[in-house]
Amino acid sequence: MKSKTKFKILSLLCLSLAGCKKSDPANQTPNSGAVTASIQVVSGNNQLGYAGKRLPDTIVLKVTPGNPADTAKLGFTTTGAAYGQFTVIGRTSSNGTIYIKALWMLATNATAPSITFYTNTGCNIAQGSSVNCKAIDSVKLSATVRKPWASIYTGAQGGYNVLYDLSMTDLNHAIALGEGSGVIRTADGGKTWIQGAPIRSDNDMEQLAFSGPDTGLVILVNNYAWFTYDGGATYKQENWTPPFVGDRSSAVYKMLSRKVIYTAGWRGQIAKTTDGGVTWAQEGFTFLNNFRDMAVKGKDTLYACGDVGKIVKTTNAGKTWLEQPLQLNNYLNTLFFVTNNFGFAGGEAGVLIRTTDGINWSVVKTGLRFPIIAIRFFNAQHGYIVSNSGEVAESKDGGLTWTTRCADNYGVYSLNKAVIKDQTTIFGLQQAAIFTFDLTQP
């Protein structure tokens, strides 16, 4: 009898203990063992970038675990079609929150890149998507790819063929030429280019200059000129005396009319003709710095720039020239003036200098690394600069600050010439090809 009573008591005790196991404590949530987390972008999403190059800013992500004790359990993976290379460079935890820093190198063929970044358990980026991965949350990252310089004309390959100069005669018509290139023309604003015969049988043409849409000249071997009166459709030889002796001894010509022409070049030489190149008056300087470019404002004010920061100016149509007080060692390649006294000079290592009085110059930071070869402003505030490696920068405050619109070596790498046609298009010459850069893109 006592044995039966003990058995019943033990049975009731077991049932009571089993019932306790089935009942959860009041403060425990269902599936308390599941890992939860949320992810969000702190900074670096929707950047402007370049195909084949790293995005400029670091991407920062914030991951918040549902339980701060779960931070060590969380891993991360990425997916996306040909998005390039996504590299996590830092992971830190603070007060139960994880911060991820990453760099994104876009694929070379990227057009509209996007990538999905996951937080999960059971795997990490190095392991990729495995059967053990359990995605918890995700966020999509995107970037806008700037279009590179694009080739719109390529000359025949084989033999020596290089383009040296390009000149717009009006908004629709332009001429490009060089050595072994023939004469390349456009009549539709540069959308299409057609190669024609060279001006002379030796097919060596070096420079162009125009005083208007019809009248211009082309410089041939040893500084001889032929003239056009129909916008470059035809050229003919006329009476001409080279202003300086030697092939390529003139770096630049400025044509004010068929009769009045200026040139600058080797060893600090500047010359002017008033009879169309029959005779020349030369200006002598005490220095031997080569000149590289000239700028003309009206009929009396001209500037010339050149090696080792040299700039000279005339306000009396070349009767006298004054050297500018400039402490600069960089070679200066190009000039542009908005008014008689407000202008810019650009050159070696991305240097840009600015004057508002036509006398005193100050250096402006541009962010460019390579020699500036083209400057153009469309008013007192808005302008562009171009380097020989294809860098493009834009200013909207009169040249005080600059924003990069194209990185170096992005479609081109060694431009002989750049022409800023208007506020939508830039043309560039590289070897035997003509390139264009679209300024209307972001």
Labels describing this entry:
disordered N terminus; elongated; Methylamine Dehydrogenase, Chain H; 45% strand; 2 domains; 1 helix; mainly beta; four-stranded mixed β-sheet; 5% helix; Immunoglobulin-like; 442 residues
Helix coverage percent of residues?
under 10%
Q: Report the CATH architecture of the largest domain.
A: 7 Propeller
Structural class: mainly beta
Physical arrangement of strands within the biggest beta sheet: 1-3-6-5
Based on CA atoms alone, the radius of gyration comes out at 34 Å
Folded structure, characterized:
- With 442 residues, the protein is mainly beta.
- The protein has one helix spanning 2-22; strands at 37-43, 47-50, 59-65, 75-79, 85-94, 97-105, 114-121, 134-146, 150-154, 162-168, 174-179, 183-186, 194-196, 205-210, 216-220, 225-228, 236-237, 250-255, 261-265, 269-273, 281-283, 291-297, 301-306, 310-314, 322-323, 332-337, 343-347, 352-355, 362-364, 372-377, 383-387, 392-395, 403-406, 417-420, 425-430, 433-438.
- The strands form nine sheets. Strands 1-3-6-5 form a four-stranded antiparallel sheet, with no helix packed on it.
- The longest helix has 21 residues, at 2-22.
- Mean pLDDT is 90; it is low at 1-32.
